[in-house]
């Protein structure tokens, strides 16, 4: 009987340690670095919003060109990382 209890406790402890290891690994894994090229469409969309809001005469090509310049300037000084939403908004 003592042996069965020891095995059950060992199996439970093994699972707990494995789960803890996964939690630690997830906590220390750095977020994925975002490349400047990934920022360009986001910045261009912001420029297009300004075009609509302020009625400025910026073409799509000009918006993309400005977005590339902005992304390049930001990438020169800053490192961007992707953040994941913790909850979804419906």
Q: How many strand segments?
A: 0
Q: Give the SSE order as H and E letters.
A: HHH
Unreliable parts: none
Radius of gyration: 25 Å
- From the N-terminal CA to the C-terminal CA, the straight-line distance is 53 Å
Strand content bin: under 5%
Biggest sheet, in brief?
none
Structural class: mainly alpha
Question: Which shape, going by the Cα principal axes?
Answer: elongated
Could you report the average pLDDT, rounded to the nearest whole number?
A: 75
Our count of helices gives: 3
Helix content: over 70%
Explain what this protein looks like in three dimensions.
- This protein has three helices and no strands.
- It is an all-alpha fold.
- The longest helix is centred in the first third of the chain and has 27 residues, at 2-28.
- It is elongated, with a radius of gyration of 25 Å.
- The termini are far apart.
- The mean pLDDT is 75.
In short:
The chain has helices spanning 2-28, 36-54, 60-77. With 90 residues, the protein is mainly α.
Helix and strand arrangement:
Blueprint: H1 2-28, H2 36-54, H3 60-77
Helix pairs in contact: 2-3
Keywords, please?
90 residues; mainly alpha
